[in-house]
Amino acid sequence: MNTEFNGLVSRRGLLRTGAGLLLTTALPPLPGHAAGSNEYRIAAAPARARLAGDSRPETDVWAYNGTIPGSLVRLRQGEPARLVVENRLDQETTVHWHGIRLPNAMDGVPGLTQPPIKPGGSFVYEFTPPDAGTFWYHPHANSLDQLGRGLAGPVIVEEREPVAVDRDLLWFLTDWRLTDEGGIASGFGNRMEAAMSGRVGNTVTLNGRLSEAEPVRAGERIRLRLVNGSLARIMALRFEGHRPLIVAIDGQPCDPHEPEGSRILLGPAMRIDVMLYMQGAPGRRYGVIDDFYDGLSYPVTQLAYDEQRALREHPLDAPLELSRNPLPEPDLAAAERHDLTLQGGMMSGMGGMQGGGMMHGMMGMGGGAAWAINGMSMTGDGHAGMEPALTFQRGRSIILMLRNETAWWHPMHLHGHSLAVLSRNGRPVSHRQWQDTVLMAPKDIVEVAFVADNPGDWMLHCHVMDHQMAGLMTVLRVA
Ligand SMILES: [Cu+2]
Fold first, then answer.
1. CA distances (Å), origin 16, targets 48, 69, 348
2. Whole-angstrom Cα distance, residue 297 to residue 292?
3. How many A from CA of 409 to the centre of ligand 1?
4. 269 Cα–ligand 1 center, Å
């Protein structure tokens, strides 16, 4: 595959510092956040970060409130939130609150839902999160550069009644393409990559640092919130010696289940919450391995058990199923059906795709687009006057058949709604799972359903950022 690795991914023996530990365990308070309130100030600005450890040069990044990942936004389910975003970059930006069902005007798509925030300007996002769970925030302007240079942060919407765990941890995973000097490699928007796997990097950080080990204790129950904040890297995580149970996908609780083949498949922009019973032995270490790309497996980190005896001898005897969120149940018998077909990219076998794989002149808005949905390419980040591919009457139940006719993987993200995943390649999907980002393998056909209850123009796009920029995007209108 189109992936390079340098020495950074093989571990250098760095140990986590106290600061790293704090981020995974206590999650520090936010600057500009009054304790107990749902109000935050978030500034997007240039910063420097030690992504690859103390022995490596710092990296010039763009960051929310100066940290990688951006500071944690912790909200409460059903309580109004107010998020003041300041733009201290030298270019326009917006913030998209990924996965949160909110009013269209708060969705952060430039041109489509709000004017972009000018350098020196600010925008106040106000919404009441209906769903508890693990979400994240990132720009929706110049997305490839802005996300690729570090602008991303986690959002946790707390349940009214939390499930019993010893610790609630968040691993924000980010893929970077770093140079030997520690800088972020140039070449964003490379057309060949855009028509293939996208900009997959060479360094994966956990909460903003290469991680050698994460401290755990035998016998504890950990809720682990996994976020893939990468531009393009798909991950398949194996926890050696452990049996993680998936309890939520994209913030939405599902029936607890073990991942297929013991690998947690995590596409860009996806979140998966797992429950982990720490069944390992005191003093031992167990790898957490990402082996998605053939022949390129590497350790994301290790679970490092301290020497203390087990906290308990048997798994905690308390329910681990999360309370369901108030999602409207689609009426499948009465639902409207529509097809959305993903086209293009290299090796698609489509006419006109030879000679570099670009679809010049084929479609609507994108000169030089590499991808299309139902024959139309919308390129960039979103802009005024994007015509909807489909219009739904508010309140209707909708079934979408997503057909991936390409030779590449695509995490398809719908704004403003969560999707009940009904079937994949004709086989029912169990576990009653809902997703806002549906990872599609080459040639996959995935059937999803939802109630079009949130009025407005909503983006549907691939979250491999190069793919979105190069045309794998459309708009769905709820009128
Ligand atoms: Cu894609």
1. 19, 16, 44
2. 7
3. 6
4. 12
Residue 8 has pLDDT above 70, yes or no: no
Query: What is the model's pLDDT at position 34?
Result: 66
d(CA 83, CA 364): 35
Distance 194 CA to ligand 1 centre (A): 9
What pLDDT, on a 0 to 100 scale, did the predictor assign at position 7?
A: 27
The sign of the torsion formed by the CA atoms of 172, 176, 181, 184 equals negative
State in Å: Cα 471 to ligand 1 middle.
9
Query: What is the whole-number distance in angstroms between the Cα of residue 234 and the centre of ligand 1?
Result: 11
* Cα distance between residue 41 and residue 189, in whole Å: 31
134 Cα to the center of ligand 1, angstroms: 22
Q: Which CATH superfamily is domain 11-158 in?
A: Cupredoxins -  blue copper proteins (2.60.40.420)
Domain layout of the chain by residue ranges: 11-158, 167-305, 332-478
Ligand 1 centroid, distance to 357 Cα (angstroms): 15
Confidence of residue 367 (pLDDT cuts 50, 70, 90): low
Whether pLDDT at 357 is above 50: no
For 465, the enclosing helix (H) or strand (E) is helix 465-469
Residue 91 CB-density burial (10 A; 0-12 exposed, 13-18 middle, 19+ buried): middle
Q: What percent of the chain has a predicted confidence (pLDDT) above 90?
A: 81
Q: Which CATH class is domain 167-305?
A: mainly beta
The answer to pTM > 0.85 is yes
Q: Which CATH class is domain 332-478?
A: mainly beta
Question: From ligand 1's centre to the CA of 407, what distance in Å?
Answer: 10
pLDDT tens column, 227-266: 999 999 999 999 999 999 999 999 999 999 999 999 999 9
Q: Tell me the β-bridge partners of 6.
A: none
Centre of ligand 1 to C-alpha 195, Å, is: 9
- pLDDT surpassing 60 at residue 441: yes
Dump pLDDT digits (tens) for 188-212: 988 889 999 999 999 999 999 999 9
Ligand 1 centre distance from Cα of residue 464 (Å): 5
Helix (H) or strand (E) segment spanning residue 148: helix 143-148
Same fold, 11-158 and 167-305: yes
Q: For residue 271, how far is its CA from the centre of ligand 1 (angstroms)?
A: 17
Please name the residue that has the structure tokens 């639902």.
335
C-alpha of residue 378 to centroid of ligand 1, in Å: 13
